Amino acid sequence: MWPKLTRSVTVVTLRICRQSNLATLRPHIRSISHGSSSLDSRTQTIQPLCSRSFHPSITPAMGLQPRRTITTERSSWYESIADSTPVYLAEQLLVSTQQMTGLPWWASIVCTTLTLRTAITLPLGIYQSIIIAKVEALQKEISVLAHQLRFEISVKAKEKGWSEKACRFHFKKNLKRIVSELYVRDNCHPFKASLLIWVQLPMWVCLSLALRNLSLGMGHVPLASEAGLATGGALWFPDLTLPDSTWIIPVSLGLINLLITEIFALRQLEASKFQKYVTHFIRGISLVMIPIAATVPSSMSLYWLGSSCVGLAHNLLMRSPRFRGVCRIPPTRLDSETPYKDIAAAFVAKYIK
Fold first, then answer.
1. What is the largest CA-CA distance in the chain?
2. Are 286 and 280 within 8 A, CB to CB?
3. C-alpha distances in angstroms, 157 versus 84, 152, 175, 176, 178?
4. Which of 63, 124, 267, 291 has its Cα between 20 and 30 A from that of 312?
5. CA-CA distance, 303 to 90, in Å (whole number)?
């Protein structure tokens, strides 16, 4: 007597999409079906009673070409991210924007980048500047309170005979408490200043992977035409699915990122050792991005270049005294009435003279 067992097997279903009278085959893991198997009590082996599979010849017989390779192996973390829901939503955003505006793909990518950076990252950048200005304004008050606390700790130490180590412990503990109370009072915890990077970086990754999927024909959202990004370029990059062979976009990307880094570095009057290390690290990343941008589809490198250009414009806008006044950003010791002249003079003094 062979007792029956049931095991789950994955069935790959096929979804057929029609675009301009041309059928394309898109495999998806859509459902789980059950197959039966039997256990031989004498040999202790499992023998399948029935199986369901797709023969490799089914696709050519139907005249369809699969757009993605079907594999039963576990996908890598990179492919998992590329197939995630946020990337799928980014694909929908890019395709919908291009279809609604009717712009060529290169212009649609630039407009989408400008819109997202202005609507999302610019307000976060303003909020970051407000937090930094508030934290800087508290430094004088913290210095006064620290001086008073040091005096009180010295008096207590004489009364209770504390050692120098105990005095340092009580001083740090109470100073940390005082600083935390000040941050709560003014609603300006320094961690809030990092909110920009926690939003900007995931958005950058999702849009980059979405463009990568659309460029390689692996997107989840059907394009308006079969040509798609292949004919959506301009000038020296007519095909957005291929890398920029002239290296104009990658080199421009590296130069813009280096310019942003240098503008930030020129504003630091007395940079600490850690700040210098961070600046050197960002410079290195800017240089490494050049060969990387030369190996990815032009749609990705164009998005990266557009995002960096918008970021540079926002950084310069945040230096404007009039704009800071409109946004009610508290003044700081680094503010200037002529910020652009100061940046140009500092740049010439450091790199030209």
1. 94
2. no
3. 59, 9, 16, 19, 19
4. 291
5. 13
Residues whose CB is less than 8 angstroms from the CB of residue 271 and which lie 6 or more positions away in sequence, other chains included: 265, 279
Q: How far apart are CA 216 and CA 210, in angstroms?
A: 10
Instruction: Please give the pLDDT value at position 215.
Output: 84
| Residue pointed to by tokens 């900007």 | 200
- List Cβ<8 Å contacts ≥24 apart for 341-347: 343/263, 343/266, 343/267, 343/319, 346/266, 347/262, 347/266
Distances in whole angstroms, Cα of residue 299 to Cα of each of 146, 251, 314? 54, 15, 22
In this structure, the number of other CB atoms found within 10 A of the CB of residue 126 comes to 20
Q: Which region holds residue 7: left if phi is over 0, alpha if psi is between -120 and 50, else beta? A: beta
Angle at alpha carbon of residue 256, lines to 340 and 94, rounded to 5°: 115
pLDDT at 57: 41
pLDDT for position 14: 37
Whether the Cβ atoms of residue 25 and residue 16 lie closer than 8 Å to each other: yes
* N-terminal to C-terminal alpha carbon distance within the chain: 94
Residue ranges of the chain with pLDDT lower than 70?
A: 1-75, 219-227, 268-271, 353
Q: Name the DSSP letter for residue 193.
A: G
Residue type present at position 2? W
Backbone angles phi, psi at 65, to 5 degrees: -120, 120
CA count, 13 A, side-chain hemisphere, 299: 28
CB 41 within 8 A of CB 3: yes
Q: What is the C-alpha separation between 113 and 326, in angstroms, rounded?
A: 24
Residue 255, pLDDT score: 93
- Nearest by Cα to 48 from 31, 36, 63: 36
Global pTM reads 0.71
Instruction: Give yes or no for a contact between 240 and 230, defined as CB atoms under 8 angstroms apart.
Output: yes
For 296-334, the pLDDT digits (tens) are: 999 999 999 999 999 999 999 988 889 988 988 888 888
d(CA 196, CA 207): 17
Residues 6+ positions from 74 with CB-CB distance below 8 Å: none
Q: Given this model, what pLDDT does residue 15 score?
A: 40
